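As a warm-up, study this chain.
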Amino acid sequence: MPRLLTARSPKLATRVTLRERFTANFRDPTMRANVLALAGGKFIGLALVMAAMWLYLPTPLHAQAGAPSAEINAINTMWVLIAAFLVFCMQVGFVMLEAGFARSRESVNILVEGIVDTAICGVTFWAWGFAFMFEPGNGFIGMHGFFLNGLADTYGSTGIPLLAFWVFQFAFADTCSTITSGAMVGRCGFVGDILYSIGVTGFIYPIVGHWGWGPDGWLAVMGPAAFRDFAGSTIVHSIGGAISLAGAIALGPRLGRVFRRDGGGPPLPHNIILGAVGGLILWFGWYGFNPGSTLSALDMQGIARVSFNTTMAACSAGLTALFYAYMRVKKWDLGLTVNGFLAGLVAITAPCYWVSPAGAFAIGAVSGVLVIWFTDLLEFVRIDDPIGAVPVHLGCGVWGTLALGLFATGQYGLPTPTGMDGS
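Now compare it with the structure written out below.
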């Protein structure tokens, strides 16, 4: 018989419910085995990571202690820090977008998750994430520089202080992790939020990022036809979108979610105004995300080209999504328009340095249609993505990386600390 509790003791009611749930689960042999297997796997993985850190931290042969530091370039340093602060502002845009597009009862969880995710990212990216991603090791993972120990004062030949470069890259890592939360709104508990935040910012993002952006990543050293991703259509957005898709599939749809093929449809956003303002803040933050990735204020033509291409892709994608949605439902859909210009921003992130204005317009225009098609596909296969994280970041992130090969003009080289390499 259930225990009766008075209305004057809600805290006691919560404690009793948690205790009874814990006791019931503890007595279940299947649940005990699953918990032990999960915990054991995590402890083994953590032990391996800590062992690797212990082996490499004290070994001077694997460190850069004493390595010559490039002369600090003050103007490049200021440019990178300003760009980092703009990228960090995207966290405000993300939580507003997700809170506005979700149901009202999920808003506080989104805000808490976004704040804690940022704090966790700072610690994990300092402890080992930066080392995994940006320090030499092998083609798959960096192997020294944990806690930034033993590294030169400047990063590589950029002329940017190591700590300034870290702040810029921390903001990128935080963005990748925040993308993930959008697809799992309303179904993931706070402990789950913490665990996947550690997994994304501490392991998945930096390890995969090393492949394309690390000094010896296997994608980065493929030769003249090496993989190129200027600011992260794949390395940031597609990774975040793929994790979002995995989370949405694993957790299943929200309670009460009825899909269109079953006679329902996506629930309406509880505050579309908040969501649209969040989208515009993200657009503003993208001016740090893409132009800042030049890592050089001296590359004035490159910064101007990247800024223009970023703007043009967002504009064409937003208009395409707006008019395409109107053709289908005879309504001006604000939510699809917001996701449309975000899709254009995601797609142009990889090729923005190497395409012409006409190419940027075309890339954005295709993105505005693709994001709606990907949204329809998720609805058809009954995957619940309340924010549209998978269509925007995975679908259009993949498109943007492929579009680099289709639209690059061939007249722009690689960025350097003093400008474009025209050779």
